[in-house]
Amino acid sequence: MKKIMRLFVAIFAFILITACGNSSNMKIEFMEDPKHDVTKEFTYKFVGESNHFYFQTGKAYYGNNERSLLLSNFKVKDNVKEGSTFSVNLYFDDKLLYGGMEVPIQKPKDTIPGIVIAEFGENNEVDEHGNIIGESDAFFETTMTGFKTSIRLEAEYCIKEQCTSEVFKIRYLK
Fold first, then answer.
1. How far is CA 46 from the centre of its chain?
2. Integer CA distances (angstroms), 99 to 40, 46, 129, 133, in order
3. Does 172 have pLDDT greater than 70?
4. Mean pLDDT of 14-20
5. How far apart are CA 44 and CA 59, in angstroms?
């Protein structure tokens, strides 16, 4: 009976240790960002996570002719090496909206300064062939119903000259 009890305790301890040590099971809480938010309304509210990074503020708004997008509060997980760099690329339907800004990481578990993706404006007119008249971008060309399938956010994590790309998994809250 003692052997069975010891085995049970050992298995329970192993499960507890491996479950607690797995950072991919971390619960990312949504965080408001009043400093960068241009509207209090939103159609979609979301957070995202990749292997080494996460963000806590994701909002998209589709109004009659207005659109707004906000991604901010990017954070570093504890599995990132000090002195590495981070950059992010945001695509809609494989068209680049934002990218290229490389930020050094000072220490793990920090907020990544300077990474705020914000877009706000009105839809442009469409001609008889469906072409947009005037200026547009990858976000403004999306639709409310196609937003979730068109967005793709990629991080590039570099240690010295070796870089890896990772796609953020987005979790929608509304």
1. 8
2. 26, 20, 30, 25
3. yes
4. 43
5. 6
